[in-house]
Design brief:
single chain, 66 residues, mainly alpha, globular
Length: 66
């Protein structure tokens, strides 16, 4: 069974909180109502794609999903 994909607004929120807020993965998970492993996965995938909060803020959901 495959995992459900997190909504793009949550992914943007993870990037915002980690890059601007400097929060830990645990604090971000609590704030966004996600598992810590989901937060870590979002950060890893964004890092591999070279996606930062500054770039993500100007993108729509489809562009972030790519």
């Amino acid at each position: 069974m495959s995992r459900k994909r997190a909504p793009m607004r949550r992914i943007k929120e993870v990037l915002r909180l980690s890059q601007l807020g400097g929060l830990s993965e645990r604090d971000i998970a609590r704030s966004t109502n996600q598992k810590k492993s989901t937060v870590r996965d979002c950060k890893i995938r964004a890092g591999l794609a070279g996606l930062t909060w500054d770039e993500a803020v100007g993108l729509d959901d489809a562009e972030i999903a790519k």
